[in-house]
Specification:
This protein is about 35% helix and about 20% strand. The protein is an alpha/beta fold and about 210 residues long. The chain has a seven-stranded mixed beta sheet with strand order 4-3-2-1-5-6-7, with helices on both faces. α4 (about 65-75) packs parallel to α6. The chain is globular, with a radius of gyration of 16 Å.
Length: about 210
């Protein structure tokens, strides 16, 4: 058991590991980027219930071909420094995980590029290769990230003291509750107020100056 890593780093995906919001980029296929972006903004500010906002935004994606969604999700712009930061964290003994209220199409693909150990996100429901406008998965609610973090800490035997969480929006608040080091990355005010550290520049390598070595 001595080879098990005893530190945990949990990253949000959209606007943290990835420079943008996946759902907005997909919505642009239907000319709905502005409407979806407005709802996303309000949800990340904590003004809207996360579940309600997610299910409504996904309903607007109905009719897009799954193959096109995958093309989009496989060509997303990753945040400056994401790959190098994850590599360094792993060399320091961290298990690195991605929690996303977004979609498996993006996080599972990015896992192999950015090098994190596991991803937990949501699944866009399809029928005959077309999005139905429905969604389900592991990160559907405002408290999903916190609940999953508690499970991982228990499973891996990692303490809150040895956990760091990095995110940008209101749905990251729940995982902040169980992390000793809480980093708001180019974040909404509601998250900054609950953070131990704030990074205001789009450069994830800044995290390496913050984390406990």
């Amino acid at each position: 058991m001595s080879n098990i890593k005893n530190k945990l780093a949990v990253f949000d995906f959209d606007s943290t590991l990835m420079d943008g919001e996946t759902i907005e980029i997909i919505a642009s296929e239907l000319g709905l980027q502005k409407e979806v972006a407005n709802i996303t903004q309000r949800a990340m500010n904590g003004e809207l219930d996360f579940f309600d906002s997610l299910t409504y935004r996904v309903s607007l994606l109905k009719g897009i071909k799954e193959a096109r969604v995958n093309e989009i999700c496989h060509s997303l712009p990753y945040m400056n420094g994401a790959k190098d930061t994850i590599k360094e964290l792993k060399s320091l003994g961290y298990t690195v995980v991605c929690f996303s209220g977004g979609f498996k199409n993006a996080t599972e693909y990015a896992k192999n590029i950015l090098g994190y150990d596991a991803d937990f996100s949501n699944i866009l429901h399809t029928r005959e290769g077309i999005l139905t406008g429905q969604v389900g998965g592991e990160m559907m609610f405002s408290d999903s990230k916190g609940e999953m973090l508690k499970k991982l800490q228990s499973l891996l035997g990692i303490s809150e003291q040895n956990t760091i969480a990095i995110g940008d929006g209101a749905n990251d608040l729940s995982m902040f509750r169980y992390a000793h080091t809480r980093v708001a990355f180019c974040a909404k005010q509601i998250l900054k107020q609950n953070a131990t550290h704030c990074i205001e520049e789009k450069d994830l390598t800044k995290l390496l100056k913050i984390i406990p070595q």
